Amino acid sequence: MTMLTRRQSLMLAAGGLAAMAAPRGFAEDFFEGPSLHELAQEKGMRFGSAVGVGDPDSLASSFHDARYRELLIRECGVLVHENELKWYVARPDAETFDFRPADMVMDFAAENGMEMRGHTLLWHHTDWFPDWFANHDFGSRPGTEAERMLTEHVRTLVERYRGRIYSWDVVNETIDEAGRLRQTPLSQHLGEEVIDIAFHVAKEADPDAELLYNDYMSWEAGYERQQEGVLRLLERLKERGAPVDGLGVQSHIGSGNYDYSTGFDTARADGWRQFLDAVTGLDLSLSITEFDVHDKNLPADIETRDREVAELARRYLDLMFSYPQTKDILVWGMADHLSWYQGMWLREDGLPKRPTPYDEDYRPKPLRQAIADAIRAAEPRPA
Length: 383
Ligand code: G3I
Description:
It is a single chain. This protein has a single domain, classed as Glycosidases (TIM Barrel, Alpha-Beta Barrel), CATH 3.20.20.80. The protein has 13 helices and nine strands. It has helices spanning 6-13, 36-42, 66-75, 87-90, 100-111, 131-134, 142-160, 185-190, 193-205, 224-239, 266-281, 302-321, 366-377; strands at residues 46-51, 78-81, 115-123, 165-172, 210-215, 246-249, 252-253, 285-293, 326-331. The protein has an eight-stranded parallel barrel, surrounded by six helices. Strand 5 (210-215), helix 10 (224-239) and strand 6 (246-249) form a beta-alpha-beta unit. Helix 7 (142-160) runs parallel beside helix 9 and helix 12 (302-321) runs parallel beside helix 13. The protein is globular and about 60 Å long. 44% of the residues are buried. The site of ligand G3I has 12 residues, from loops. Ligand G3I is lined by residues 52, 54-55, 82-83, 86, 128, 172, 216, 250, 290, 340.
C-alpha cells in the first residue's frame, strides 16, 4: 500500500501533487480550511485521536483502511493506542511482552510526524488484567513479587518508548463510582502504594515524560462520589511525593445520566468547575484524553442528533478550554463506525451511534465543527 506522509497529504490537499493519483472523494475533501491539529497548534494545544489496530494480521482491520489513515494524517497531531499497550494485549503471559500491535501505531505516527501518548501502564481494574494474572503464583512473599511484576512492566514499556511517548496515562480508572480504590491482585498485596510505585517507576524510566492519572469521573449526574474519590487520591499522591503531573479527564460525555431534554445544566457545570479548580489548585494539568459524545438517548433523526451532540460538545469544551491547563484534546476514535460505543449500551431503535467527529463515510459532522469552533475560541495556552 502506498503511504502518504503528512507533508505529501498537505501538498495533495493544496493541489500541489496533481500527478499523484488519489481517488475522487479522497484526502482533499475531508474538510475545508485548517485541520484540527493546525487549529490546536496555533493555540499551543494538541489535537489527536485513539487508534486501534485490532488483529495485527488482518488486512481487514480498520487500521489498514487507506481513507481512515489519510484522515488521521490530515487531522491529528497526536495519536494514542486504543488497546495495544494494555496488559491484556502487551502481556501474553507473565514472562513475555508483545509490542507488535503497539509498534504498528508507533511506526505510523513516526512516519507521518505525529506525536504519541501512552495508554496505559496500569489499568487498575480486575476486569482488564489478562486472564493469566488471576492464577499467577505470588509465592511466599507476595508483596515483593507484586512490586517486581509491576516495576518490570512499567519500566519495560516506558524505557522502550522513551523520547517517543511524551505523555503517559500511568494509572487508569482506579477509583470506582462510590469513590473507593478498586481492589486487584496487585493492591491486595501492595495496598494503595501500587499507584505510587507505578508513578515512581515511570518517572525513573523517562524523567521527561508527562505522567497522568486518567479516569472517567464526569461532570454529569451520578459521578459526584467518583470526583471526590479522584480528588482525594490526587491529594494523597501529591502529599506522598508521587510524581503525578496532571489529570486525564476522559470526557465520554452525554452518557447514560445526561438528560438532553433539559440541555446543558449550568448548576452541575458549576460543581464540575469546583472539581477542576481543586485539581488545578494542586498544581496539576488537565488533559482531555478520550473525548466522544454518547447519543444513545437522542432521537433517531440524524440532523437533530448531530446538532444536539455538537451543542453539548461545544458547551463542554468551552468550559474545559477556559482552563489554560487544558492543552491536549484527544478523541476516542475519529469515525462513528470505529467507536467503542457501537457495541455497548445499544440504542433502543437499534440504529448505529454517532459519537465521533466523522461519519462512517468519513464525512465531517457538526461535532467536528464544534471542536474546531471551541479550539478557535480558546485563549492561546501559556508556553
Ligand atoms: O481483538 C479482539 C478480537 O480478536 C475479537 O474477535 C473480538 C471479539 O469480541 O474482541 C476483540 O477485542 C476487543 C477489543 O476492544 C478490540 O476491539 C475486546 O473484546 C473489547 O473488550 C475491547 O474493548 C476496548 C475496551 O477499552 C476494553 O479494553 C475498547 O476497544 C476501547 O475503546 C476501550 O477503551 C477504554 C479506555 O481504554 C479507558 N477508558 C474507557 C474506554 C472506553 O471503554
